Amino acid sequence: MSASLGRRALAELIGTAALVAVVVGSGIQATELSRDVGVQLLANSLATVFGLAVLITLFGPVSGAHFNPVVTLAAWFTGRKGGDGMTAREAAVYVPAQTLGAIGGAVLADAMFAEPLVKWSTHDRSAGHLWLGEIVATAGLVLLVFGLTRTDRAHLASAAVASYIGAAYWFTSSTSFANPAVTVGRAFTDTFAGIAPASVAPFVAAQLVGAAVGLGLLAAVFGRPAPADAPIVVPHGETELAPSAP
Hints:
Number of strands: 0
Strand content: under 5%
Radius of gyration: 17 Å
Largest sheet: none
Structural class: mainly alpha
């Protein structure tokens, strides 16, 4: 299907909101059902895996299902010379939509569980090993997303990306935020999935570094893309982002 930039931005806003609602809501539910932190993290990660897979499947045909500023910026960066990828204008619309959606999703999750609608998180996540975890998580995500596109397997993104995020919950020290918009949104809730506002900027900086590392690995492993490659998460309609869906 073909969608206007406004509809694509709306899909990104709703999709990111739903993703954060899943992450925050499942975290709240987990802490209410168990006092075991391992069980809480397991429940949170499983809900995120299932929710993310569904959201990519649903919104991918409309917007590409980025739900993540680093994916959007990487899509713009890799496609900027060919003229057939994401434009700066499109990226400038996507990123605020994703960020607003993430904040809205956190507020929605709090509302569903009768938590204060906005309460800044007190969960401090300021430590070098956590920033390293974010670099690793984000680099792997970027490499996966664009590696699938380079190898004409973007149709596997819903399962592959969700599986990677689920694994990264457990193998990274930071539990794999890997998403600046989601990071900002999670600062608005003082619950299991929250992050203290003071920890947000270093996390986002680490994520941007991770995106650069991921793009470097992409170039090293897969080489330069063919001019017709469309830097997207999943195939979607014949819009400015994807003149011809793979």
